[in-house]
Amino acid sequence: MNINDISYLNITKAMKRDTAEVLENTDDAVFIREKRSGVFFMACDDPDLGMKLLEKHEDMGYHLLVIFDTKLADRAFEKYGFTERLDCWQTAYLGPIPEVSDELRVRVATLDDLDAITANYDLVSAEEVKISVEYGDVLVGFDKEDNMVGFIGEHTDGSGGMLYVFPEHRRKGYGAEFEKHLFIKNITEGFIPFGHVVKDNFASMELQKSMGLTIADKPACWLWKEE
Fold first, then answer.
1. Which of 39, 57, 94, 99 stands 20 to 30 A from 72 (CA)?
2. By three-state DSSP, how is residue 66 classified?
3. φ, ψ for residue 126 (rounded to 5)?
4. What is the reported pTM?
């Protein structure tokens, strides 16, 4: 197993930024708990070995588990009583620093921007958004008249996302520009920009391809229990 495969960028980024609690790290499997998000990530091509490692650490309680192998994910879903599953493709930008337009000016979000962000983005909790803002992982953007037009950021697990353009500013190319700025942030910090796209979100997948992103070979299978 090649842990440097782009399928495993969640794991390698956590290790590089020192937010990985490494539970297992061998030639055949890597299993971590990402400390900022609390998400467990398992990279293992052998479902039997993967299950043994999950059983070894199961006292930690897997509230949110990401597995990069569908067969292993099937077995873990059954054993640990997960109620929800979302399979995603992982995308990565491997190109040079992109050129950006002067139509969008971005800055790092502060806690003063938090209300504007959480009022418009509810795909993750307000607390998770706050954590991302506190770590400097959210960007807010403005047009030439200094109107805020939207935002983008990194989730606490390190993946890109949180893209939102206010309705009155859509269809002006801001979405792609926001993505470029997030690419630049990651590249200058020494990371490969990456994100997750739900498998059946074909429109988003086409957008990612049009921007030059590479699709990883292995899916990221998110497993959790609905509370």
1. 94
2. strand
3. -60, -35
4. 0.94
